[in-house]
Amino acid sequence: MDIVLGGLLLAVLAIPMLVVGLAILAESGRPVLLRQRRIGRGGVEYLMWKFRTLPQGTPQMAKAELDPTRYDASPLGRLLRRYSIDEVPQLLNVLAGEMSLVGPRPALYTQTDLVSMRGSLGALAVKPGVTGLAQIGGRENLTLAQKVALDAHYVRTLSLGHDVSILFRTIAAILRARGSF
Predict the structure, then answer these.
(1) 3-class SS at 127?
(2) CA 127 to CA 6: how far, in whole Å?
(3) Which tens digit of pLDDT belongs to each residue from 36-94?
(4) Which residues, in sequence order, are CB contacts of 64 under 8 Å at separation 6+?
């Protein structure tokens, strides 16, 4: 399902992705895309694609840990983040087999507390996802413990039907844009 649906989504979104890339280029220059060090299945590190929404040279840290006076998103970057458009390039990671469409969101390599909590609850047993229960359950309005609990619940209830439900519910969550930066 990941390869077929991911490839189809990438084909459908190719032109919009080009438009977003050109808008980023016009607003703040290169790079348009960046690769962040993330923790995947089994705690293995990989590089995840994203549209750049923060200033060039921003350290790879969780946005909540960054100094907002120095590393704030541009108006375009805020729009891309609000509607999760910055995440669309992760379809390339899905096609490469590093991510799934649905699963726990991948932690940054600096988020050792999150990785440890997920490891202790078995949430590193599956590939990270472009979307997951935490994204439809509150996104950034959730505490770390709440996110990890949802990740662990996802692993315990893993099924194709559950994944399809999460994908459809993600569309509504993105349109509401609640809990996004």
Answers:
(1) coil
(2) 14
(3) 999 999 999 999 999 999 888 888 877 777 777 778 888 999 999 999 999 999 999 99
(4) 140
